[in-house]
Amino acid sequence: MCARQAKGLGYFNPRLRRSDPRRYNDRWVFCSMRCQNVFSRLMERLTPFQEDAVIDPSDMEIAAMQSALAPLGEYVASIGMDRPLADYGKDEVLRLVEVVVDAYQAHMLAEHERMVERDRTFFEQLASRKATASTGGDHHRIPF
Question: Within the chain, where are the H helices?
Answer without folding.
Answer: 33-51, 59-67, 69-79, 90-134
